[in-house]
């Protein structure tokens, strides 16, 4: 049974458990897991279909992949009764929670960038999205250039903010920003008219729109600002744990299980409302599975 614990409680427990020997243990995740009998995963509460909470615990494409890693760790450590504890993370706190040992493996939609790779390590890419722009069909916004003088909603701590600011400087566009703490809050700013557009990964935008009562009111523009490789995060300088995680994901890509899981979450109805994203595998995703890599941007 996976147990979901709030960040404040999780952080307090970790601080008590690790006082005095944290630095020694952080570099050996497998030993930490073996000693405690628990693996700590980080998930998101509303990032459908990757990681979102139903009946108390995260489910989704990313959650399924991380469960495969859990099974591999059970086998590696000969711990059939290994417990799983989830901590819900946000874009703003996910990296610190990996670094300080609150979570051992972050299982959501984090873009692998060179800056982040200086702070944490990344597993092989499990998805590639593209940063895109969502608007209301009544807005008359047809391209990035039309955002001049408009307000755009972005997620705090996301790479889309940096991409937007780069385009704003290069194209000399007067774009105002409002930010939400997560995808759902940011979409609410957009849907309720406090922003004229929202910039985020295309698959996340498609998911958020699909959950609306009137999804036909929205449009994702053809402009794509940058490709974003997603990777699960774990601590730097931990080759034993890295080997288990990476081997598990690469095996899934090569034996066809990854394709089956993709179909389950992107091409079929998913709980709890039976939404179907109808989001076929893109050439970039297919290439990521043909040639597994932890290469970032």
From TrEMBL:
Task: Name the encoding gene, please.
Answer: gltI_4
InterPro entries linked: Bact_solute-bind_prot3, Solute-binding_3/MltF_N
Family listed: Belongs to the bacterial solute-binding protein 3 family.
Keyword field: Signal, Transport
Q: Name one GO cellular component term.
A: outer membrane-bounded periplasmic space
- Keyword Transport (UniProt): yes
Q: Which PANTHER family match?
A: AMINO ACID ABC TRANSPORTER PERMEASE, GLUTAMATE_ASPARTATE IMPORT SOLUTE-BINDING PROTEIN
Q: Where is the Solute-binding protein family 3/N-terminal domain?
A: 38-269
For this protein, the record's Gene3D superfamilies field holds: Periplasmic binding protein-like II (3.40.190.10)
Protein name (database record): Amino acid ABC transporter substrate-binding protein
Signal peptide segment: 1-24
GO terms (BP aspect): amino acid transport
Q: Which organism is it from?
A: Comamonas testosteroni (Pseudomonas testosteroni)
